[in-house]
């Protein structure tokens, strides 16, 4: 039933001039879904309070509650079409009254980890793209048919929402940056082995896939106490996200998975000077797929000891600094990071090998990320002790991955099983850190078990490296020129 409702809402959005892609559909579905969820949550809290003979104070004022403007009902529970706003009246109310009212919550909230603050953040970032009040009325009535009352309903909704995110990842444009394939995330979590009581962090959280999957992994542990459940709700998952749409989707995704007031901040992680990160700010586990290929401005680069315009390399420095001693990380990065000869790549590999135990590198096949067109590796490391041995695993699913043939959990089963004991096999091998060249720190993936292993590099990667080296040369010549 829920799935059909979402399809019907997409059909309504398809006719809307302001909505052109899966990204727009997900954005508009998300804010309506959030308000319906909030209404169900408030009514459930009111009933709980009544059972305890207490009075519940609603977060949302009566005029702005779902039941007042989105889905007014008659006494018999049927829809009250006479009271329901529609057409231009509905659009005017949403744009001029409802959104400004909800935006103000940010300034009134007691702290950033409250539901009130999330309300303010979401509606401060999102825009109503509906232009027809008749279309919006149809969407609201469809959404009103959904319920968040039981855990089963939330679970079903979370699956449908995940499917929407997957479609968004396949939709081209920049949708893919919000979506990391869930089988890869689950394998990374199994290797990182988070435990209840540990703080888990993703500073580039996108749609919060890593945090949601880590929650599901920990929630599935047997015999959880009430204290454990409270710890999972409030003190375990932390994220940061720069982009407005991704932030909204992350909040909604975590709520649907069962985390009521997600600890996700809407901020540019890289604007933070990593020297300001103190012990109290550090985490036990980092799970992330930071954006790559971005070009960060010089003032942002000033926040990092290794200066580079490559976004992913700045995130890697941030993540290393954000880990506690002994903390564990699993991070997706472009495979060219392992062999690029520019100064930043070499310096970062040196830092990883000397300051962390880079124990595992998982080499992913092309097509893992839909529409991204780049090959990736996953770095698994622990902070605090130098690398002695690196265990490599080259994933070969035996088929070409693509939209109709995506990565699945079975593909990664062997990797997870062999990694537990760092076992060598046809697809895995161990490299002694002493054998790594200390001038280049090159970590290229070359499977010694297969003779024809030397792959041709992607021409785009070669050009990108040439451009980086040219820029570096120009910078050196310019500084020499200034000395003369």
TrEMBL record:
Residues in DNA methylase adenine-specific domain copies: 153-453
Q: Which residue ranges does the record assign to the N6 adenine-specific DNA methyltransferase N-terminal domain?
A: 4-107
* Enzyme kind, highest EC tier: transferase
GO MF annotations, alphabetized: DNA binding; endonuclease activity; N-methyltransferase activity; site-specific DNA-methyltransferase (adenine-specific) activity
Example GO biological process term?
DNA restriction-modification system
PROSITE patterns with a match to the protein in the record: N6_MTASE
Tell me which domain of life the UniProt entry assigns to the organism this sequence originates from.
Bacteria
Question: What UniProt keywords apply to this chain's record, in alphabetical order?
Answer: Endonuclease, Hydrolase, Methyltransferase, Nuclease, Restriction system, S-adenosyl-L-methionine, Transferase
Q: Which reaction does this enzyme catalyse, per its entry?
A: a 2'-deoxyadenosine in DNA + S-adenosyl-L-methionine = an N(6)-methyl-2'-deoxyadenosine in DNA + S-adenosyl-L-homocysteine + H(+)
Protein EC: 2.1.1.72
The UniProt family comment states: Belongs to the N(4)/N(6)-methyltransferase family.
What PANTHER family does the record tag this protein with?
SLR6095 PROTEIN, TYPE I RESTRICTION ENZYME ECOKI METHYLASE SUBUNIT
What's the name of the protein?
Answer: site-specific DNA-methyltransferase (adenine-specific)
Read off the lineage from the record: Bacteria, Pseudomonadati, Pseudomonadota, Alphaproteobacteria, Hyphomicrobiales
């Amino acid at each position: 039933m829920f799935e059909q409702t979402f399809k019907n809402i997409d059909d309504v959005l398809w006719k809307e001039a302001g909505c052109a892609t899966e990204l727009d559909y997900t954005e508009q579905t998300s804010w309506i879904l959030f308000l319906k969820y909030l209404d169900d949550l408030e009514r459930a809290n009111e009933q709980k309070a009544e059972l305890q003979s207490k009075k519940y104070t609603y977060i949302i004022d009566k005029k702005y509650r779902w039941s007042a403007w989105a889905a007014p009902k008659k006494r018999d529970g049927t829809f009250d079409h006479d009271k329901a706003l529609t057409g231009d009246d509905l659009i005017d109310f949403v744009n001029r009254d409802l959104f400004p009212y909800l935006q103000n919550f940010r300034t009134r909230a007691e702290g950033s980890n409250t539901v009130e603050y999330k309300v303010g953040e979401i509606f401060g970032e999102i825009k109503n793209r509906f232009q027809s009040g008749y279309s919006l009325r149809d969407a609201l009535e469809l959404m009103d048919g959904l319920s968040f009352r039981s855990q089963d309903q939330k679970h079903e909704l979370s699956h449908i929402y995940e499917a929407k995110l997957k479609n968004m990842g396949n939709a081209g444009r920049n949708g893919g940056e919000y979506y990391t394939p869930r089988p890869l995330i689950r394998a990374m979590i199994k290797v990182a082995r988070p435990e209840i009581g540990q703080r888990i962090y993703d500073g580039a959280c996108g749609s919060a896939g890593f945090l949601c999957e880590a929650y599901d992994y920990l929630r599935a542990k047997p015999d959880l106490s009430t204290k454990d459940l409270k710890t999972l709700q409030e003190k375990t998952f932390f994220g940061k996200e720069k982009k407005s749409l991704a932030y909204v989707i992350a909040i909604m995704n975590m709520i649907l998975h069962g985390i009521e007031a997600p600890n996700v901040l809407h901020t540019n992680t890289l604007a933070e000077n990593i020297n300001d990160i103190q012990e109290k700010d550090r985490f036990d586990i980092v799970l992330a797929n930071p954006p790559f290929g971005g070009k960060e401005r010089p003032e942002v680069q000033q926040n990092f000891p290794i200066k580079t315009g490559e976004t992913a390399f700045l995130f890697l420095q941030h993540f290393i600094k954000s880990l506690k001693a002994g903390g564990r990380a699993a991070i997706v990065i472009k495979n060219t990071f392992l062999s690029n000869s520019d100064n930043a790549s070499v310096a970062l590999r040196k830092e990883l090998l000397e300051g962390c135990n880079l124990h595992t590198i998982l080499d992913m096949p092309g097509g893992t990320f839909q529409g991204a067109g780049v090959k990736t590796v996953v770095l698994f490391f622990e902070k605090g002790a130098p690398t002695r041995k690196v265990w490599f695993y080259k994933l070969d699913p035996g088929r070409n991955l693509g939209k109709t043939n995506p990565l699945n959990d079975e593909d990664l089963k062997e990797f997870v099983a062999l990694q537990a004991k760092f076992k060598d096999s046809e697809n895995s091998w161990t490299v002694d850190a002493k054998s790594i060249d200390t001038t280049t720190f090159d970590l290229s993936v070359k499977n010694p078990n297969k003779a024809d292993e030397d792959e041709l590099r992607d021409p785009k990667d070669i050009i990108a490296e040439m451009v980086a080296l040219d820029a570096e040369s120009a910078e050196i010549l310019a500084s020499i020129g200034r000395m003369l």
